[in-house]
Amino acid sequence: MASNYWCCNGCTHSNEHGRRKCVQCGTTKNGYSGGGGDTWRCSQCTFINEGQRSKCSACGAYNGGHGHGQDDGHSPRGGRGGRGGRGRYGREIDNEVRIVLLGKTGSGKSATGNTILNGELFASTTSGSSITSRCTSRQAQRFGKEIQVVDTPGIFDTNLPNDVVQKEIVKCIGMTSPGPHCFLLVLGLTRFTQEEEESIDHFVNYFGRRVFSYFIVLFTRKDDLDHHGKTLDDHLRTVPTSLKKILGQCDHRCIAFNNRAPSPARHDQVEDLLEMIDEILRQNHGECYTNDMYSEAEKVMKQRQYQIEKKRERERERERKEIEREVEQKYRGQYGSHYKSQSALEQRVAELESMRDHYAHRSTALEREVRELEDEIDYEKRKYGSPSSKLVAKLRNLEDERTQLSSGRGAASEREIEDLRHELKRMQKQSKKMNKEKDRIYQERLEQLDHKYNQLQNARTEVRTEVESGSGNVGEALLGGIMSIGKLIWKGIQMLF
Predict the structure, then answer these.
(1) What is the pLDDT of residue 96?
(2) Which of 3, 49, 413, 426 is most buried, taking the most CB atoms under 10 A from its CB?
(3) Where are the domains of the chain?
(4) Does pTM surpass 0.90?
């Protein structure tokens, strides 16, 4: 079978090279079967793979017949730095797909970014003037993923000074840190020039040949092909050897987009592209692209992200305390007299109950003292004929005190205390109702505070925005961090243009 076609593993139908799904059964393309080699069935997921593949393209498990007894420990999506990346970069970027658009001015990068994100998020035009002169990042949720697209200045734009281009490259690294999942080389259907080829070579020399493992070539203006009744495979037969070499280095990953197609067709195009990116991740152990530059950039991004998160925590706690103070102050001002009256009544009831208890205790003690004294007086009468005047005077004083206690002077009646208790209970019930309302208002304000902070960009996105806009010091920190890893690497940036 010619290399311009691939054989479906599901139904054996021959499909054109540019299609990602079988037109007969819908099975996703799994590479090219033109070599005519044997196939093998994965023992883990039963997917049928081509004989030359050592790993299953569906689940990542190794073929036992290729000298691998077990999986290498990397999950298809959970490897460090990949779309799964959980635990290394935090949950904010776990679900991301990071795409870097490459291509010359007028190739359709911005329009392609808009198709991927399903919205007019990038400025786009069909004119020859460059719309995107600075790295721009946009993102949207699609297909259950947070898709980030970074539209770069045309890598062939010789109008920009070298120092500007250098800073834009550093910005691109920071904005896509911890690393892209795909470098999308956007080309038109026009002639592939030597200038484009040289610029790609410079780019690869800087980032390393490993970038080809994450390269996808995307041709725009698929509608022109359709208009002339041609397919992507027809176009690929006409491209120069230099472009065919690039396609070969990226495992012939290519796709055509019609950025003016109706919404359902654009949806299918993006879905096919994301399937290609999934295949890239499977082949790279679930890891995104990274190098020393990205490692340095990630340190800076994490540090700034931590600063933002801590600052937000402090501001949130300060606002919470301010809300607590405002609510308390409001209710103290509105119901202060009530709380004051209740406090005074509580104190009065406590005093009366204390006095009542004191009188009761003293009355019992007096009765005991009187009886004891009367016994002493009787004893002296029997022994001496008459008691001492001292005992008689003491008895008289005790009897006077007993009479005073019996009259109730200075002590509140039980009825009075009960009435005050009833009033206090009423006031306490009202206070409980007011406190409940106060708590409701407080919780409502806290929910508003939570909503306010939940509406903020996540910290990583805010750092990326700072990098893009050049605000703050994070850009200089990125530049310094990247320069610190070696003059040779920095020289690589200068060689780009």
Answers:
(1) 93
(2) 49
(3) 91-290+487-494, 307-454
(4) no
